[in-house]
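From: lab user (bench 3)
To: helpdesk
Subject: output format question, protein + biotin

Hello, I'm new to running complex predictions and I'm not sure whether the block I got back is the full result or only part of it. Here's what I submitted:
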Amino acid sequence: MATRLSGHPLIELDSVDSTNKYAADRLHLPELQHGTVILADEQTMGRGQRERTWVSAKGLDLTFSLVLRPQGLKAAGQFALAKVVALAVHDSVVEALRTARGLGVGAVHIKWPNDVLIGDRKVAGILIQNELAGERITASVVGVGLNVNSTELHQGLGSTSLRNEVGHPLDRAQVLNDVLARFDHWSEVSQLDPAAVDRAYADALWGRGRPMAVELDGASLIATPVDVDGHGRLRLRMPDGSEQAFGLDRLRFAPRYQ
Ligand code: BTN
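Helpdesk reply: Thanks, we reran it on our side. This is the complete output you should expect:
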């Protein structure tokens, strides 16, 4: 382990199938201590949510996994970690845009549960894989794919990169450093004042207060995101005016937003 980044031990790999898999396969090793970052210049089989693949450009984007060994985090509290990670990435994207283009926070949102969008285009995806012992999380592998400098985007038409948005290449190490510092910040806030994390996440929520096309149990409807509940379910104002919360098992945004 040669270097540290923002106080985090760093393992740098030239090429790997997936940084999440690399970490998950080595969780039994004590060297992989809490806070270790595994960074790859290239992933040949990057994993995305819902069994999808994550494609990124070698040497241009950020693909990394953060290994966490939480103390006493119950499986039911998993979404607290997801919010912290999403806020860290969200704030770094805001900062990159603000510095380069003077764009405000209004341009960047978190699409439930944890994609980061600029406008309606995805700039980052997060995949958190947990190792459980009974009801407790013994380790988490937090995988982040952030499109930094790629100009040919592979995640479909609805994606973008920081470079596309600001018009010039950015320093990947600086962006990574910023994400890690913000992760540390939001982790601390989540210990001291969890309600502040909830508020920041709700403020950043994409589509909040806007009628959106969603699919509930496979049926299409228009409903308005309100916020998320303590289980990480999205709370929606339904067409009949009631508010109801649904998890990913039942709810997703309509395919045009995928
Ligand atoms: C998504 O589908 O939006 C989540 C994408 C997560 C991609 C990152 S890249 C680094 C880490 N290693 C992986 O194989 N996946 C995650």
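A quick orientation on your result: The mean pLDDT is 91. Let us know if anything else is unclear.
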